[in-house]
Amino acid sequence: MEKKKYQLIIVGAGPAGLTAAIYAKRAGIDTLLLEKLSPGGQAQLTGKIENYPGFPKPISGQKLMEETVKQVENLKVELKNEEVERVEDDKEKKVYTDAGSIYQALALIVATGANPTNLGVPGEKEFTGKGVSYCATCDAPFFRGEDVLVVGGGNTAIEEALYLTNFAKKVYLVHRRDRLRAEKILQDRVFANPKIEIIWHSVLKEIYGKGNVRGAKIKDLKSENIYEFPCRGVFIFVGLKPNTYFLKNRQDHLHSHSQDLVKMDENGFIITNEDMETNVRGIFACGDVRKNKLKQIVVACGEGAQAAFAARKYIEELTGTSYQ
Question: How many helices (H) and strands (E) does the chain have?
Answer without folding.
Answer: 6, 19
